[in-house]
Automatic annotation (TrEMBL):
Native organism taxonomy: Bacteria, Bacillati, Bacillota, Clostridia, Eubacteriales
Biased composition annotated in UniProt, kind: Basic and acidic residues: 27-60
All residue ranges annotated as the FtsK domain in the record: 298-490
Nucleotide-binding is among the record's keywords: yes
Protein name: DNA translocase FtsK
Molecular function via GO: ATP binding; DNA binding
Residues where ATP binds: 315-322
Entry annotated with the keyword Nucleotide-binding: yes
Length: 647
């Protein structure tokens, strides 16, 4: 008997069909438990989302009923409850066993599913949240699981890369006192209506949506009321509502209402884990999808960089720009393998992106020198042209078609990854080499999309000398964080509004094709979370392998630029000009212009070179500069130079 037990134990421990069968059972149990946990999280998110929406008319009826008969439910209250189930957005919360009450309502009856579809927001450049989270059929879910299994199998065969687990990211905690209860919101809505009535604005609040940072009151003006009249009352409304800040969206796209957005008492932080762990992000097929945040209605917003195809991020210091860049990079690390997406990070501030050095997704080390950054952009332009040449040889028009073509011939070595170029501070580059940087950015923005190359440019100085008209015209997708003036907002978005944002990740997101920018509370990721994700990704690669060809071409271009700069610092007329100045014992720009027949700029540059060599003194108003050496000193200098050359 003991021998049989020992044999059974050995069979269980050794790599046998029995042990493999038991291992598969364990994996299936683990998979089922993970699916149950995921369904529980999605259910909680749906319940929280429903709780954020409130129909003011229905809530007013409910609140009035509670005040009249708090102890028992009367017939009148039953009618109100039936009305609530049959009319307005809140009918999605009614029980399916109770029949809706249609009496007294001019609105046609509508199923909860149809109501949800009508109220579903459509965001261009992103994904529709509820369409992904609520409308998947069983067959689609089964196909999605099969696709996920195939995808995981392909990952295992490609360098055995493992995606970072969501457990590395911190769970979100709702701030205490961050939101108002329904009664408080109804009181504020009535106060807003009274404020508008005091200024002879006939309008009513039809809906209230409480987001992470702001609460939006949808005001429906009656016929004959000018929208401009409501917009002009922004300061008066803020005064009467005792609001920290207020922003008016007139009108709300797709609705016959004006949105009045009032800052919450406390901002409810949106963690990046909430978005990455959502069905919207998980079902995004693009490898360069990234988490944006949550809108005013609480919907998860995920954008696809491929459809943008380039992004401009701007905002004042401390508004959340650097956190947004970290969120974008982290999202890509959770979506793409190193052989699918490569990153080129340009960080003139040195400290913002230096932590990413060593991850396998980097094409080259993080670029910190402005001169090398310009060379890196020049390489990107050359790479773009080279990719288009290869596309022409294969008879294709974009990267995905090219990769499919070479894979069909089993030429995996020719497959090219997508490249995302991220510039953390454009202002420093524009100061170092404005014409070169602007030209490279414009060429990439115009043509790089089909080549699978995408550009993300960020700056904390949104002025016209940094975000030039040429750059802005070629980068249509923008994210604007809080700025100090309306002028800066117009520089970023071509419209005002960013100056009314509250900061701390509050943004206006305007993707390509969107009529008006969408207000979003951006995702937050801490330095500790970034460090955990980076360390996990670094462990996937035994040794960092940067592209030697790219680094060599950048170094070569940088050295050529440096040598040409040194050549420019000299001037063929400088020796003759020095002799003239020393002989005449006076130095002025006008004298050099007359004697050598040159322009003002060149003559002034020669005078500056003489000052650097301590041949002439500093400027003295309108008088000529003092000459600091004599003819004898000049002869001695020439003799010493000749002796050095002979030796």
């Amino acid at each position: 008997m003991s021998v049989v037990v020992i044999i059974i134990c050995l069979l269980l421990l050794m790599n046998t069909p029995v042990s493999r069968f038991l291992e598969k059972i364990k994996e299936k149990k683990k998979k089922r438990s993970e699916d149950r946990e995921m369904r529980r999280i999605e259910k909680e998110q749906k319940q929280a989302e429903k709780a954020r929406h409130m129909d003011v008319r229905q809530l007013h009826e409910q609140y009035a009923g509670e005040q009249e008969q708090p102890s028992s439910i009367t017939d009148g209250q039953r009618k109100i409850l039936g009305y609530m189930k049959g009319d307005g957005p809140s009918n999605t919360q009614s029980s399916p066993r109770e029949e809706p009450h249609s009496g007294g309502s001019s609105r046609p009856e509508m199923s909860p599913e149809a109501e949800a579809v009508i109220n579903e927001p459509i965001i261009k450049g992103g994904f529709s949240p509820k369409a992904v989270e609520e409308k998947l059929t069983k067959e689609e879910a089964r196909k999605s699981m099969l696709r996920e299994e195939d995808f995981n199998a392909s990952i295992a065969s490609a360098e055995s890369y493992k995606f970072p687990p969501v457990s590395l990211l911190a769970k979100g905690k709702r701030a205490s006192g961050s939101g108002s209860n329904e009664k408080e919101l109804m009181i504020k809505a009535e106060k807003l209506e009274a404020t508008l009535q005091s200024f002879n604005i006939d309008a009513r609040v039809t809906n209230v949506s409480q987001g992470p940072a702001v609460t939006r009151y949808e005001v429906h003006p009656n016929s004959g009321v000018k929208v401009k009249g409501i917009v002009n009352l922004a300061d008066d409304i803020a005064l009467n509502m005792e609001a920290k800040s207020i922003r008016i969206e007139a009108p709300i796209p797709g609705k016959p209402a004006v949105g009045i957005e009032i800052e919450n008492d406390r901002i409810n932080m949106v963690t990046i884990r909430e978005i990455i762990d959502s069905a919207v992000f998980r079902n995004a097929t693009s490898k360069i999808s990234f988490a944006v945040g949550r809108d005013i209605s609480g919907n998860a917003i995920v954008a696809d960089l491929k459809s943008m195809p380039h992004l401009l991020i701007a905002g004042s210091t401390g508004s959340g720009k650097s956190v947004c860049i970290n969120s974008i990079i982290t999202s890509i690390l959770y979506k793409a393998r190193p052989d699918e997406v490569k990153l080129v990070l340009v960080d003139p501030k040195v400290v913002e992106l230096a932590n990413y050095n060593g991850i396998p997704h980097l094409l080259i080390p993080v670029v910190t020198e402005p001169s090398k950054a310009a060379a890196a952009l020049n390489w990107a332009v050359a790479e773009m042209d080279e990719r288009y040449r290869k596309f022409a040889e294969e008879g294709v028009r974009e990267l995905a078609s090219y990769n499919r073509t070479v894979r069909s011939r089993d030429e995996e070595e020719k497959v090219m990854p997508q490249i995302v170029i991220i510039i953390d501070e454009l202002a420093d580059l524009m100061m170092a080499a404005p014409s070169q940087v602007e030209e490279s950015i414009c060429r990439l923005a115009q043509k790089a999309r089909a080549a699978g190359m995408h550009l993300i440019v960020a700056t904390q100085r949104p002025s016209v000398d940094v975000i030039t008209g040429v750059i802005k015209a070629n980068i249509p997708s923008r994210i604007a964080f809080a700025v100090s003036s309306q002028f800066d907002s117009r520089t970023i978005l071509d419209m005002s509004g960013a100056e009314k944002l509250v900061g701390k990740g509050d943004m206006l997101f305007n993707p390509l094709g969107s009529g008006k920018p969408l207000r979003v509370q951006g995702t937050f990721i801490s330095d500790e979370e970034v460090h955990k994700v980076i360390e996990f990704v670094k462990e996937q690669a035994e040794a960092v392998e940067y592209s030697g060809d790219v680094m060599d071409s950048i170094e070569k271009a940088n050295s050529q630029a440096g040598s040409s700069k040194d050549e420019d610092e000299g001037d063929t007329l400088l020796p003759d000009a020095i002799e003239l100045v020393v002989q005449s014992q006076q130095a002025s720009v006008s004298m050099l212009q007359r004697r050598f027949r040159i322009g003002y700029n060149r003559a002034a540059r020669i005078i500056d070179m003489m000052e650097e060599r301590q041949i002439v003194g500093p400027p003295d108003g309108s008088r000529p500069r003092n000459v600091l050496i004599t003819e004898e000193d000049l002869m001695n200098m020439k003799d010493s130079e000749e002796e050095k050359e002979d030796s």
